[in-house]
Structure formats: structure tokens, C-alpha cells
């Protein structure tokens, strides 16, 4: 059988999962003592902002730099264990059932499946494994003696995603005009423009406008569902997310009130 010339490229956050992989494991990191309560709150606030309004290119860069600073010195094996232990209660319940069906459809069509993500590979790999996706193109962090140094060696954002897709297509012989790409973010317009079948999934305002102007397909995913149902997994994951959201919104409210008093 000749190798496939078609691939389906998927962004991860808010495209395959109804959350942010970069922030999803914050509770596990807090309980393991890797981050402080203040840092955990900071993660929750950033996640809440991302989920409600998305992130501009500049905000993504600022978030990257802050996270890189935060994880300096972390042990890779410990991170992997935390991610593995919390996958079932945090991320698996947040996988869109529509995304799972779409991935299965492309698999049935004989297409290669690729996750292209700005999140760190160590966070993306277990999610890809759950979905049966072998190929990952993600942000790479430097590791020395089993510990993160805080240096990002490859940052997959914007045009870098498009470049990585072209490199992979050349390596594997994909015909990009036959390929598919899925994303929610305007920062991924370069990624979507690379392929012949770009699709906006739950698009933020900027991408929705661009997709409408270009005549791109727009999909709406609404049903997070565990890949492997387990008692209480859905409730645990969603409950934790609501708790985090309430905490974040309450903190924002306090900050706004304080700001108002300071201005008066």
C-alpha cells in the first residue's frame, strides 16, 4: 500500500479539548508542591481570560515567558507522573466528543493525524496518546539532567505552525492542497492557510470574521465527553473547572473593585 498523501492537522486547545492544556494540570502541580497558591491563582486567572476572550499573539508570548520562568528546575519524570495521574479527571472529560468523531472519521478515511500545538510536548503527548494520534508537533522545552531549564527551544505559534506543517509535508509526501487543518484561533490563520481544507472550530471573533470572508467551513463543538467513561470522571473534571472559574472571577472582581477605589 502506498503511503497516504493526506493529513488532518489539529490545533489542541479549544479545538480538541474544551480547555487549555497549558493550565489544565495546575491543580496537580499545586498539590504536588511545584507551584504556590499564588502561582495557582495566577494560572487560573490566565486560563479564565483565555477561555473567555482568547489570547492575542503578544499575550501568548507573555504567557510563554511566565510559564517558562515558573517551570525552571522542574523534574521531567515528576511532571510526567502528575500529568498521567490527573489526565482522567482533568483533561479526558474535556475532550470534545465532536472532535473525537472527526478524528475517527479522518482515521477511517486513511488520513494521517497530526496535533500541532503551542503547548509543551510533555503536556500534549498524553492527550495525543488517549486519542490514538502518533504524530505531534509542539513547543519544545530544554531539558538538562532530567530537569527543565526554563528555555524554550522551539515555540509553535502562528507562522511557526505553518512552517512545521510544510516541513512535515515535505518529509512525508503530503499534498497540502488535499490536507485538512482545524483551529479556533486567529493566531492560527497561517496554519489554516497552508492546506486546501481549512476549518474554523469554535472560532474566536477574529478567526470567525476571516473564515467567513474566505468561505472556510466553520464548526461548533459543544460536547466534552470522556474517551473512556469512568465513574465520576466527568463530574470531577467539570466541577474542578467551575471551582477554578469561580475563584478566578471572584479574584477579578476584587481587583476591579480595588482599582475603582484607588481611582476615586
From TrEMBL:
InterPro entries attached to this UniProt entry: HAD-like_SerB (IPR050582), HAD-like_sf (IPR036412), HAD_hydro_SerB1 (IPR006385), HAD_sf (IPR023214)
Keyword Amino-acid biosynthesis: no
Organism superkingdom: Bacteria
Keywords (A to Z) from UniProt: Hydrolase, Magnesium, Membrane, Metal-binding, Transmembrane, Transmembrane helix
Molecular function as annotated in GO: hydrolase activity; metal ion binding
TM stretches of this protein: 236-257
Similarity-based family: Belongs to the HAD-like hydrolase superfamily. SerB family.
Annotated protein name in UniProt: HAD-IB family hydrolase
